[in-house]
Amino acid sequence: MRNQTAPDTWDIREVEKAGKGLTMQAVTLSHRYISNGGLKMQFVRDVDRFEQCLVNDFKNGKKNKETVFKELRKERQNLMDQGAIITQKGIGVISGVMQVAAGAGICYYSAAYLCSIGASLMAHG
């Protein structure tokens, strides 16, 4: 029930290599953002299963090479976007904490003379 002829060995290796690139991206992101060891393994395993399903679909002739590459690129971009969002949120939290600390410092070290400025910094942070 194939809709295409069986792919040659070179094409299979190209698709497998691209799939392993996606898995390596997942490994990198898991080490960077997930501290729980079990969750890291589950995340990488899920991405690897997705990659293996695409490779198997290609080997069985259910999907062509371009479709598999497109889906792998889409998933890789999705993973990178999620990593960027996590980074942005982390930077936002750090800058907010720094603003609160700066506002408190202004209030404390100015002996309450500049508390209006310090309070607005703390409220914004």
From TrEMBL:
Q: Which Pfam family name is an example for this entry?
A: DUF4225
Q: Which domain of life is it from?
A: Bacteria
Q: Which InterPro entries match?
A: DUF4225
Per its record, how is this protein called by name?
Answer: Uncharacterized protein
